[in-house]
Amino acid sequence: MDTKTLRTHIRQQRRTLSDAERENAAFLLCERVASSRIYQHSKHIAFYLSNDGEMDLSLLIKHAWQQGKQVYLPVLAEPNTQKLWFIPYTPTTKLKNNRFGIAEPVHSSRTRLRKTLSLDLILMPLVAFDQQGNRVGMGGGFYDRSLAFLKNRQHWHKPNLLGVAYELQKQEQLEINLWDIPLQAIATEKKLYLANKSKNL
Q: Which among 12, 117, 123, 151 is most buried, taking Cβ atoms within 10 Å?
């Protein structure tokens, strides 16, 4: 199955989940991630707000606030850069829809930004994943461009990258592109998958 067909197939599958199935999966995922070392050892964490049937992280975001962790959300940078910025997110942060219809914090040139390389952990949405840490996104390449600097890292690898998905999105093996940035781990409602190079997480 080619990547375009795979995206369409899995997005359709994801949308067929009932509200009860989504709520249960989100609860189980929150418990699984909250008890993981990769999360517990992180102070500055970027989340996302769900769209197009993605796993809902609202419970985990509330847990992070309760634990005193610093929470961030991605926002679109300048249109010609196709990269992401990360902005602090609190219970009082105002939101608006970006050009893709995805909610993001209201921001201006005076908004305090967090450099991607100074985050401890980024929870990343995805369409498909495999256990080797490969990820298929929505096709825009925003995360890959924003994290391209990790390709040149030899030792210090922060931020850690944790993919978030439903178990139904798991694939045996995905095709890899040169620009793809691999994940350290993937969390679903059933399991935390560690990529081969991430056994210490």
A: 123
